[in-house]
Recover the amino acids of this structure.
């Protein structure tokens, strides 16, 4: 920026940059620990004291069967719940962004509520519902719970992305004789797709990571975080770090692809 | 063993070496003859693990009652695994009987496990496992609630091998609902590097020197039991809340003073080995295991005595695979098989004749007073009284209030 | 009984499709919530579900067979319906059930079903026995929120105004840590903060321990299992929820405006205060809610990083619900927590305006 800066201003500027840099570093401290300890060869059951470097854990990421099962189960739950939530949430987002209609205020409020309710209240209240219904908690109840918080999340994320779009395109297409169905697939859907994908990625991550709500509704089902919490009482194998690092790398890859894709389409549109 | 492989450090050999060390300590004149090796079955944990593709509870189809399947939910690290060329009990059982045993380490704590199965059993529905392994007092609660099926004892001839001391226990006076799995003791676990001295009494846990470095167990019967014994209270005859009130007061005062770093279940291993805890209330067998990570970790019976407990095998109401369950119980009550388990877990076995069988496998262990407690040891331990429902509720309420969770 | 056979309703549907849609949507939602919470029981259940179904069918029918005008007006309600019904059944109904259970009593200690007897004893217990946990929850969450602003605002500011072409990359870096499990990150801190861990060692090496001891961050050379560790954990875990909304509102500011402000006001501090801060407030508002609310209900940080004297209300709810099996008491505590937070949000919104939590 071009404003004239005195020496003092210069120092202040750099001080602020360094402060921000430290803040960013703070975010990464545990991440560095997690990645580093995936290369540790622990001496006992707890991979929390550095012993020596090894690649064994990476050579055998699935050696802990219980952990692997829990991990796969979390992926299944996330896949199912995200698919449902993305459809329901995108429909809501489309309604909110595309139309102005009576009652949108209160409905909007209801949508925001689940995100402003503490997880422990969401988890415990849903568990009381299942108890009241005499439903044994397990896989299905966890999926239902995840969809519940993902719907709001997807709806708000997609709405934020599609707000301010030029919806007259739709009208134009219809005026030109395109059927509503065709209009949707050819005009509307491509417009909202990037938003939907971003929301899907994030809510997938939310699902895999969710611990509190899941704990209340899992019964004896063991998901990835629940397994880690339970087994941490007696052990903490390096495979936890390996799988966590894998999720991290994978998410970063997906995010980068998404970003590049977004940049490209923005350039194309411009 | 069809479950996840158990930790490397649980190798029988290293464990036996430990018993040697622990035994030497005991012989070397620690204040009490007893350093008992018994893993903390009471709160041994691990997350619920289930076999691939199954969803416990929700909509698992009832297994066929044909007797070729079995599901056992147990505590963590509570059976010999298949490793290092030795075949574990689960796999031997499958090979010998052809019964597909699904062995799962799903129990973290008695209360937590109860909270999980209660809504199902309480509605009169069945839970998936055919055999579960609650601690004695919890077994008593389940039996009193009528949530257990009597064992098919006529199909378990080896039940006759049950040691005298564990017959008709308080929680199951007729002995028709439960067979003990393993038994053990609670005492002081400490890290010699931090304490700098040997600990011999419960008073050491309240020593201001260790302020903020003490772990206290969330298993009420062990914690209150040990503290009450140190105050000269007989815990076998407790009948009202007031009987044990001083122990609760002592605990609360220590908590308020910041003496206690954390209340722990079976999750004290890392804090103890890494020195976050100077001492805590632990289970002796765990300590043998932990000493592999850190030789400074020790176990001691307090001068005022330790508490004893037993974990049981019982069949929840409506368990389908009754025949297979009987076959399993008969199998592990065979002294030869039981000795294999003992050789690895280092508990006090409830099976008569294990000592003779163990001489063949591991003669040193067979002489270990930690696994085969002598009369003096037994005399120095007490087990917590079985409380009436109302009194127990009062104990639990007060305890959970103090631990402040 | 289908909507098509009723001429009167048909007229409403076609003349005022928006009113009809709103009515069908909210009516169906409330009915479903009532059935879910078992307010409606017995033979009324099939009737209620029939009405819900009718409402759905009627909306679809209007959307398919109505006039183009009716179609357009009914469309948003049709789109909203599935998601909103899901929320009605699995968000609203559970809250009603929670409220009912909190006013119930277990007939015996190990009974499964609590009986509704309008017993407010659970609430008195929640307030008397668990007041410290409530207090700590709000104190820790509030403190952590302040820290997230102190750390997050400058970070968001630097990214938004000085990020240049690295803006997206920097923003990505803020988000990346949160693609590893929350639980594992907290366990990582537990290891880092341990008595023999890297953080304590660092403090010792830098000779900062004495200072930290004085300001109360350390306690007898310990960081782990102190209030500071819990607040630190909360700050860490919710930091991005503060950074991102602040960034979003800062990004909308035209840098030229800040430059102009520099010219206008004598000091950059003043320029910052008069231009940047007011424009960033919506972000801070959203960030505060997104940080404070989950932090107040959290139990993971207190569980892994705290001590018996730092337990928060989340720990108590979790313990009463999942370990002690006292579900009515846990429900009462949950409800109180939600009530306090809702009141907080409403008051807070009055001061800062609402809209836009994303």
């Amino acid at each position: 920026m071009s404003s004239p800066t005195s020496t003092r201003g210069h120092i202040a500027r750099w001080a602020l940059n360094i402060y921000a840099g430290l803040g960013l570093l703070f975010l990464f401290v545990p991440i560095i620990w997690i990645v580093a300890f995936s290369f540790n060869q622990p001496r006992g059951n707890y991979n929390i004291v550095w012993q020596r470097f090894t690649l064994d854990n990476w050579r055998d990421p699935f050696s802990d069967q219980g952990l692997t099962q829990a991990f796969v189960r979390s992926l299944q739950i996330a896949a199912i719940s995200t698919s449902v939530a993305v459809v329901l949430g995108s429909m809501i987002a489309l309604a909110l962004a595309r139309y102005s209609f009576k009652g949108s205020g209160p409905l909007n409020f209801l949508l925001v509520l689940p995100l402003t309710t503490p997880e422990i209240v969401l988890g415990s209240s849903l568990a009381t519902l299942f108890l009241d219904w005499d439903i044994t908690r397990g896989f299905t109840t966890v999926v239902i719970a995840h969809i519940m918080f993902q719907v709001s999340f997807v709806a708000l994320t997609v709405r934020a992305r599609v707000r301010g779009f030029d919806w007259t395109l739709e009208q134009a297409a219809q005026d030109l004789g395109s059927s509503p169905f065709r209009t949707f697939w050819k005009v509307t859907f491509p417009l909202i797709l990037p938003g939907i994908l971003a929301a899907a990625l994030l809510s997938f991550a939310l699902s895999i990571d969710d611990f509190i709500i899941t704990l209340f509704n899992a019964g004896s089902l063991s998901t990835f975080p629940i397994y880690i919490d339970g087994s941490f009482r007696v052990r903490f194998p390096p495979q936890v770090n390996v799988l966590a690092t894998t999720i991290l790398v994978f998410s970063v890859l997906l995010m980068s692809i998404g970003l590049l894709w977004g940049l490209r389409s923005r350039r194309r549109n411009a | 063993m069809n479950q996840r492989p158990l930790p490397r450090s649980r190798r029988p050999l290293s464990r036996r070496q430990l018993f040697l060390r622990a035994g030497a300590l005991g012989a070397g004149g620690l204040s009490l003859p007893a350093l008992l090796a018994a893993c903390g079955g009471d709160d041994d944990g691990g997350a619920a693990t289930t076999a691939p593709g199954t969803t416990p509870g929700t909509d698992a189809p009832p297994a066929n009652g044909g007797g070729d399947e079995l599901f056992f939910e147990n505590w963590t690290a509570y059976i010999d695994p298949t490793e290092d060329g030795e075949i574990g009990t689960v796999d031997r059982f499958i090979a010998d009987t052809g019964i597909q045993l699904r062995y799962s380490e799903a129990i973290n704590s008695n209360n937590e496990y109860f909270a999980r199965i209660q809504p199902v059993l309480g509605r009169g529905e069945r839970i998936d496992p055919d055999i579960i392994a609650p601690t004695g007092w919890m077994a008593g609660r389940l039996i009193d609630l009528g949530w257990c099926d009597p064992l098919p004892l006529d199909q378990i001839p080896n039940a006759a091998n049950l040691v005298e001391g564990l017959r008709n226990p308080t929680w199951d006076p007729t002995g028709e609902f439960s067979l003990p799995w393993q038994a053990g003791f609670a005492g002081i676990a400490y890290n010699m590097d931090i304490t700098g001295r040997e600990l011999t009494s419960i008073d050491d846990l309240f020593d201001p020197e260790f302020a903020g470095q003490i772990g206290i167990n969330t298993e009420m019967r062990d914690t209150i039991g040990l503290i009450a014994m140190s105050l000269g209270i007989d815990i076998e005859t407790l009948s009202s809340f007031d009987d044990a009130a001083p122990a609760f007061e002592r605990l609360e005062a220590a908590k308020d003073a910041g003496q206690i770093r954390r209340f722990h279940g079976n999750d004290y291993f890392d804090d103890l080995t890494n020195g976050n805890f100077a001492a805590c209330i632990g289970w002796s067998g765990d300590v043998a295991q932990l000493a592999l990570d850190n030789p400074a970790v020790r176990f001691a019976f307090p001068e005022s005595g330790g508490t004893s407990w037993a974990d049981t095998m019982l069949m929840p109401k409506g368990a389908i695979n009754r025949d297979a369950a009987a076959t399993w119980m008969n199998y592990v009550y065979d002294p030869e098989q039981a000795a294999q388990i003992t050789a690895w877990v280092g508990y006090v076995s409830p099976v008569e004749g294990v000592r003779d069988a163990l001489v063949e496998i591991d003669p040193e262990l067979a002489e270990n007073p930690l696994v085969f407690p002598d009369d003096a040891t037994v005399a120095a331990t007490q087990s917590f009284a079985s409380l009436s429902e109302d009194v127990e509720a009062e104990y639990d309420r007060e305890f959970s209030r103090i631990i402040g969770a | 009984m289908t909507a098509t056979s009723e001429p009167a309703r048909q007229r409403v549907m076609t003349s005022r499709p928006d009113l009809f849609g709103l009515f069908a949507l909210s009516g169906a939602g409330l009915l479903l919530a009532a059935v879910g919470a078992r307010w409606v029981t017995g033979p009324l259940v099939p009737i209620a579900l029939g009405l819900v179904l009718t409402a759905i069918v009627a909306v679809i029918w209007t959307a398919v067979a109505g006039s183009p005008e009716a179609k357009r007006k009914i469309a948003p309600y049709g789109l909203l319906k599935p998601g909103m019904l899901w929320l009605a059944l699995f968000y609203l109904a559970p809250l009603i059930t929670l409220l009912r259970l909190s006013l119930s009593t277990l007939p015996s200690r190990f009974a499964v079903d609590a009986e509704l007897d309008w017993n407010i004893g659970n609430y008195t217990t929640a307030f008397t026995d668990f007041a410290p946990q409530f207090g700590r929850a709000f104190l820790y969450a509030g403190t952590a929120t302040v820290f997230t602003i102190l750390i997050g605002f400058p970070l968001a500011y630097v990214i938004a105004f000085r990020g240049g072409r690295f803006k997206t990359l920097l923003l990505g870096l803020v988000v990346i840590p949160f693609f590893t499990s929350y639980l594992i990150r907290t366990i990582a801190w537990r290891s880092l903060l341990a008595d023999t861990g890297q953080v304590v060692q660092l403090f010792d090496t830098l000779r900062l321990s004495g200072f930290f001891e004085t300001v109360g961050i350390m306690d007898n050379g310990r960081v782990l299992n102190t209030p500071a560790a819990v607040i630190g954990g909360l700050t860490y875990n919710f930091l991005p929820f503060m950074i991102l909304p602040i960034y979003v509102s800062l990004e909308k500011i035209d840098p030229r405006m800040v430059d102009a402000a520099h010219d206008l006001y004598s000091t950059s501090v003043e320029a910052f205060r008069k231009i940047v801060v007011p424009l960033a407030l919506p972000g801070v508002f959203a960030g505060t809610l997104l940080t404070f609310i989950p932090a107040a209900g959290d139990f993971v940080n207190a569980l892994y990083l705290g001590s018996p004297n730092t337990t928060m209300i989340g720990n108590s709810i979790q313990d009463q619900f999942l370990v002690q099996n006292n579900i009515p008491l846990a429900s009462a505590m949950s409800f109180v927590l939600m009530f306090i937070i809702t009141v907080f949000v409403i008051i807070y919104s009055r001061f800062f305006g609402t809209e836009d939590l994303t």
Summary: The mean pLDDT of chain B is 81. Chain B has 15 helices and eleven strands. The first strand of chain B starts at residue 69 and ends at 75.
